[in-house]
Design a protein that fits this description.
alpha/beta; Chitobiase, domain 2; TIM Barrel; Alpha-d-glucuronidase, C-terminal Domain; eight-stranded parallel barrel; six-stranded mixed sheet; 22 helices; 16 strands; 37% helix; 10% strand; binds 4-O-methyl-beta-D-glucopyranuronic acid
């Protein structure tokens, strides 16, 4: 009985609380379409470096989905063959139609044929990615003859940025502590590290930055590099390279130098020696991610040097080893009186063409800071001679932490599909990202991780979809979010059409919903200060103007919003003319960005015929109603979802509804101080007065930056 109990309890608590993510290999209901035959005899190319991990995955999947243990055989008798393209023999070439398939590095081909299925690729990583994709299709009930797929990654560096601190706190993390147990590394290798590698390889992520961009130089000391090596060794068979954040002042903090000036010969030598040391232990070390001269972090400007001089010094140290520098463009200065939304563009665009070829500028999707909605960053497309990669936030710092259900691939897609008009119409951010706009060889896409030690990895079960969706878009930035949503739901819960048809549109709507109940019509950066938990449109006492909410909404007796048009800060001038003219004119500016680009009178007539003031309340209420509807819809999905997760999501939706009402009431009560107008009837009357909302404090809200850094 005990054994049985363990099996049930283990199965129930681990897999049914989301640990298995989108690949828990639960039994597939329909195997009359030949799955069992398919997995009977498997041939895996004996020459490949990752044979063991591919075999392990196949065995896990066959047992979980079909309760069979495949026999590993020679190619001649296999029903499932996984083999490198250059090792295809005549017989296989006859059995499978491999003509006119164009494979690129890390790409794969899944080819059904007379002998069931062939998976081939130019390299070992491609075979692993092809294997995961094949298993995902089986988990989703695909018919074997429809399995044909040739897929090549469109982006080279597909990377997670972990804002993880060395004390295992995670800045803006809402899923527990950091999964990197530095104290016990290198000897103790938590099995979770392998599952992390499997999860990322299953969605094509091939890179990871282990440490916070508010960097700690300690990670670059010998004992810590040994710990990093242990993780790199675990990840390598899964095609994942390790990167670290480089604290620009490290030569002074751990190298006893008197300066960190990038032009100082001793500093250059220090970094070159440091790279030699890193590559001796980690031959495939990816390189450095750098946050410099931003929010107090040290950088080249401390020595009168430019971002390019700082980045290039590190790039030169890494170049002999094939490493790269990702240099973040998230800069804004408390000394610069110009509109914060303009400062990164002003600082970096003049440096176009001065960065080394192994430098990638890492640019946030919008010009301020991962808000529920921002216009695309004007830097995209504005630096034809510089490698540039988008940085998205998967963790929900401004989108409800791990409490609110928000499907972020919809947000990522909005940026990627945005037309910069830099090379005429159709010059989308995706074309900057995949390098096709300017012919960049080095490309990347970064996501700030939402992963932590929680049993379901991401805090909210549906936040897993954001990690999954980021990976799928980093592989193919042109993928649409509806495809991603439907895929993830089928893999994670059920491929029943009734479930998928109901939940796919519901997922896609959640991004708009959170904008409506937090920052409608172009409002932005009106969250509470510090922890960023909940509304704070009244915030006006922070040490820097551009950390205050009032800096962004500029509410006054006439109206609301930040005039960034040519008549205001002229931020619109940083976009191509087609975009600038669209945004400059209040009548053509999309209403979803109206208060981002204009200071609008309270009685301005919106497209729906209502005044701005009424539209604000109506939109807040729509957001609240949409959460209520989502909750109702979720109650009908019980039979498709494991009970623990169903209950968890139900409880989280209740909090989401309560907090949506809180955002609506606190913001509208505050803005009414300026509009002096009655609340629109549809939103009812807030429960409390403004003093109540302003009095709320949350000293233990999760994810805040520890005092020490
Ligand atoms: O959004 C802000 C966050 C900081 C973060 C910073 C950045 C890591 O509030 O916590 O610091 O952005 O992107 O560097």
């Amino acid at each position: 009985m005990i054994a049985l109990f363990l099996v049930i309890s283990k199965g129930f608590c681990m897999q049914d609380q989301g640990y298995g993510l989108w690949f828990d290999y639960r039994p597939v209901t329909e195997n009359t379409i030949g799955y069992t035959t398919l997995f009977q005899q498997v041939h895996i190319d004996p020459e490949i470096s990752n044979k063991a991990v591919i075999q392990n995955e196949i065995e896990l999947a066959a047992f979980g989905m079909l309760s069979i243990q495949p026999e590993m055989t020679e190619a001649s008798s296999a029903t499932l063959t996984i083999i490198r393209y250059d090792r295809l023999n005549k017989e296989l070439l006859q059995a499978f139609d491999v003509n006119n398939i164009s494979l690129k590095p890390e790409g794969f081909a899944i080819l059904p044929g007379s002998r069931t299925v062939l998976i081939t690729a130019l390299d070992d990583a491609g075979l692993l990615y092809g294997t995961y994709r094949f298993l995902q299709r089986i988990q989703s009930g695909a018919i074997i003859k429809n399995l044909k797929e040739i897929s090549n990654p469109k982006v080279k560096v597909r990377i997670l940025n972990h804002w993880d601190n060395l004390d295992r706190t995670v800045e803006r993390g809402y899923a527990g502590s950091s999964i990197w147990n530095w104290h016990k590394l290198p000897e103790y290798k938590d099995p979770r590290y392998t599952d992390y590698a499997r999860a990322n390889a299953s969605i094509g992520i091939n890179s990871t930055v282990l440490t916070n961009v508010n960097a700690n130089a300690l990670v670059l000391t010998p004992d810590w590099i040994k710990k990093v090596k242990a993780l790199a060794d675990i990840f390598r068979p899964y095609g994942i390279r390790v990167y670290l954040t480089a604290r620009f002042s490290a030569p002074m903090e751990i190298g006893n130098l008197q300066t960190a000036d990038p032009l100082d010969p001793a500093v250059k030598k220090w970094w070159a020696d440091k790279c030699d040391e890193l590559y001796k232990l980690i031959p495939d070390f990816g390189g450095f991610l750098v946050k410099a001269n931003s929010e107090g972090q040290p950088g080249p400007q401390n020595y009168g040097r430019t971002h390019a001089e700082g980045a290039n010094m590190l790039a030169d140290a890494l170049a002999p080893h094939g490493g790269i520098v990702m240099w973040r463009a998230f800069v804004y200065s408390e000394h610069d009186r110009d509109d914060r939304a303009k400062q990164a563009f002003s600082e970096f665009v003049p440096l176009d063409g001065t960065f080394r070829k192994n430098v990638l500028l890492q640019v946030k999707n919008g010009p301020i800071d991962f808000q529920p909605r921002e216009p695309f960053h004007p830097m995209f497309g504005a630096m034809p001679k510089t490698n540039m990669m988008p940085e998205f936030q998967i963790t929900q710092e401004y989108l409800g932490f791990s409490t609110h259900l928000v499907f972020l691939p919809k947000l990522f897609e909005e940026t990627l599909d945005a037309d910069t008009y830099r090379q005429g119409s159709g010059s989308t951010v995706s074309k900057v990202t995949d390098g096709s706009m300017f012919g960049n060889a080095l490309t990347g896409m970064a996501g700030v991780s939402n992963i932590g030690s929680d049993i379901n990895w991401t805090g909210h079960p549906f936040a897993q979809a954001n990690w999954y969706g980021f990976g799928r878009l980093a592989w193919d930035p042109y993928l649409d979010s509806a495809t991603i949503a439907r895929e993830w739901l089928a893999l994670t819960y059920s491929q029943e059409p009734a479930f998928l048809d109901a939940m796919t549109p519901a997922l896609l709507q959640t991004r708009e919903t959170v904008v409506k109940y937090m920052t409608p019509l172009g409002l932005h950066h009106i969250m509470n200060a510090g922890h960023h938990y909940g509304p704070g449109p009244w915030i006006d006492q922070m040490s820097r103007d551009d950390w205050n909410s009032v800096y962004y909404h500029k509410a006054d007796s006439t109206g609301l919003g930040f005039d960034r048009s040519s008549k205001g800060s002229n931020a619109t001038s940083q976009y191509a003319q087609e975009i600038a003219s669209l945004y400059n004119d209040i009548k053509t500016c999309p209403e979803e960005l109206l208060l981002w680009f204009h200071h609008v009178p309270w009685n301005y007539k919106m497209k729906n015929g209502e005044t701005l003031w009424n539209s604000l309340g109506i939109t807040y209420q729509e957001g609240v109603d949409e959460v209520a509807n989502l909750n109702k819809l979720w109650q009908d999905q019980k039979k498709y979802v494991p009970e623990p997760e169903f209950n968890e999501v139900s409880m989280l939706l209740e909090i989401q509804y309560k907090e949506a009402c809180w955002w609506r009431d606190a913001c509208m009560t505050y803005f009414q101080k300026f509009s002096h107008r009655p609340f629109p009837e549809v939103m009812g009357t807030p429960e409390h007065d403004l003093n109540y909302y302003k009095s709320l404090e949350f000293p233990y809200a999760p994810g805040i930056r520890p005092k020490w850094n």
